[in-house]
Amino acid sequence: MSSEELEKLHEIYRCLYEELKLIPHRALTCHGEDRRRLVRTFDERRGEAEEVLQGMEEELRAAPAPYRNSMVTKLRLYRRDLGKLQRDMKSSTSGSGSSAPTLQGGQRGVYSSQNEQSTQQQSQRALLLQGSEYLNSASQSIERSHRIAAETDQIGTDIIEELGEQREQLDRTRDRLVNTGENLSRSRKVLRAMSRRLMTNKLLLAIIMVMEVAILAAVVYLKFFKK
Hints:
Elements: H1 3-28, H2 33-60, H3 65-94, H4 101-225
Keywords: Coiled coil, Membrane, Protein transport, Transmembrane, Transmembrane helix, Transport
Transmembrane segments: 203-224
InterPro entries: SNARE (IPR010989), T_SNARE_dom (IPR000727), v-SNARE_N_sf (IPR038407), Vesicle_trsprt_v-SNARE_N (IPR007705)
């Protein structure tokens, strides 16, 4: 519940009620079109006061129980006061010419016609208020949709940025793997070259050993067996 909104509605009602209190007395001193205009004004202000009371009731639905109960009692008193003003207004518009019964009937007809017009105006006002509520609800729904769209857009942007960072990491990892593969290829080439040199060295060593053995055998033969 918005206490500020409730106070605002209460102040509006008080202003309307103060204006309504003056109209029955003024109606006693007016005739013709001026009285009909006062009747229309009274009906319009009374309808506005009823709408304000309904708005106060809606605001009170979420109020704490003790406060709500006291305010509901006040609202009953306000409606009772409006009913009394309604009766005073009828009396003012229908009882000012006791010596002219025809005039009384005419004033009752005028009041009935004006009351019907007021009822139609209240119905139209209620439709307008309902339309305004629908528009407010639609506006709130649009605002929520815009907010959700903005949040979704922000999430999408964050995901794209994160994917971009992951792609950069993958590119760096791929580059490292390429460099590692090139290093492994060079290492394999070096190992193959070393293996070939080792085999060559072993072969040369074996040839040298064979030559040394042959020379040693020739020396022994020449020295001991050839006379």
